[in-house]
């Protein structure tokens, strides 16, 4: 009888651990998007050419999330610390850029089915450009994203 109780207890623990691992894998899968960006853009001090990019959150369970941006061909890549922005629940993933004339800077990344966006801090270059163009209003640009798993 004791053996059956221990076997049943062990099986229940195994099922619980498997369920937690499965839920974690599903959450991590949602923290990735693929975007086709039609213009060159800056993230921090790095300039990326127009093209297809994979954007992912490397630590989705943490409070201070790190965003990884990598070109699909693997030539350009970087990671950057972000802060959370609370908003409406997003049906589709998207990237938001701040535009100054013909220069674009990544501002936010929103994953599908999430109400928390990832905000990228303004770089020194962006702040300087913003000061020089103080009379011009910044226009946010949104790039729709095709979510692929």
Which helices and strands, and how do they pair?
Blueprint: H1 2-30, E1 32-37, E2 41-43, E3 46-48, E4 51-57, E5 66-71, E6 77-86, E7 94-100, E8 103-110, E9 116-120, H2 124-132, E10 139-144
Antiparallel strand pairs: 1-4, 2-3, 4-5, 5-6, 6-9, 7-8, 7-10, 8-9
How does this structure look, described?
The structure is a single chain. 26% of the residues lie in helices and 41% in strands. It is α+β, with helices and mostly antiparallel strands. The chain has 2 domains: 1-30; 31-144, no CATH class. The protein is globular and about 40 Å long. Mean pLDDT is 76; it is low at 4-12 and 14-30.
Number of strands: 10
Strand order of the largest sheet: 1-4-5-6-9-8-7-10
**N/C terminus separation:** 46 Å
Structural class: alpha+beta
**Overall pLDDT level:** 76
Assembly level: single chain
Helix content: 25-40%
Overall shape: it is: globular
Segments where pLDDT lies below 50 for 5+ residues?
4-12, 14-30
Count of DSSP helices? Answer: 2
| Helix/strand order | HEEEEEEEEEHE
The number of domains is 2
Reported for the largest beta sheet, the result is: 8 strands, antiparallel
Strand content: 35-45%
Report the C-alpha radius of gyration, rounded.
20 Å
